[in-house]
């Protein structure tokens, strides 16, 4: 019977002490945005991910935080739509394939163009250098330099190296996202 009361108490506490974090996930195509959402929501990684067209929306509860995740397509024709889905979000996650250095200039351009939108002023930014399970991936220091993250001063910025395949640093990323909930 004590287990029942404990469960009941946790359920009631969750009703009154839960929070929500609305997160927009952007980045170039094939950087791992959808894999990120899939790993967070189901715990499963798949090599066979269909490219997102326009956007996907998922909602998941982790502990006392309900995450509303906007997975936005990264193909060039959809990038102009990113800002439209970011009104009122609690944080933006920008995913970069850290093994594809030849795309860093494009990623930097798209990121800086995107965050200059007045509606995004002050929204915290988390940059994920995904695919760190691949040899020769860029380090966090290299990503900060290549994407000029040190030049962004109008919002909190964090950068982590991660792998959705191995789920490396997923716990730290979820802590960061949870800290943006209200």
UniProtKB/TrEMBL annotation:
Mg(2+) binds at residues 34, 52. Gene3D superfamilies: P-loop containing nucleotide triphosphate hydrolases. Keywords: GTP-binding, Magnesium, Metal-binding, Nucleotide-binding, Signal. Residues 1-23 form the signal peptide. GTP binds at residues 27-34, 74, 130-133. Pfam families: Arf. GO terms for cellular component: lytic vacuole membrane. InterPro entries: Arl8a/8b, P-loop_NTPase, Small_GTP-bd, Small_GTPase_ARF/SAR. One of its GO terms (molecular function) is metal ion binding. The keyword Ribonucleoprotein does not apply. One of its GO terms (biological process) is protein transport. Belongs to the small GTPase superfamily. Arf family. NCBIfam families: small_GTP (TIGR00231). PANTHER family: ADP-RIBOSYLATION FACTOR-LIKE PROTEIN 8. This is Arl8a protein.
């Amino acid at each position: 019977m004590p287990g029942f009361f404990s469960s009941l108490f946790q359920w009631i506490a969750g009703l009154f002490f839960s929070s929500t974090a609305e997160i927009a996930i952007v980045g170039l195509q094939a950087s791992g945005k959808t894999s990120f959402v899939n790993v967070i929501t189901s715990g499963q990684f798949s090599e066979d991910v269909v490219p997102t067209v326009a956007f996907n929306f998922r909602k998941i509860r982790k502990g006392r935080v309900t995450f509303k995740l906007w997975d936005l397509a990264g193909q060039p024709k959809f990038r102009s739509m990113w800002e439209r889905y970011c009104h009122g979000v609690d944080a933006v996650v920008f995913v970069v394939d850290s093994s594809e250095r030849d795309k860093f200039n494009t990623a930097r351009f798209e990121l800086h163009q995107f965050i200059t939108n007045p509606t995004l002023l002050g929204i915290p930014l988390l940059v994920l250098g995904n695919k760190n399970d691949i040899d020769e991936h860029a380090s966090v220091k290299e990503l900060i330099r290549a994407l000029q993250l040190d030049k962004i001063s109008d919002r909190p910025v964090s950068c982590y190296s991660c792998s959705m395949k191995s789920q490396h640093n997923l716990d730290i990323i979820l802590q960061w996202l949870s800290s943006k909930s209200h």
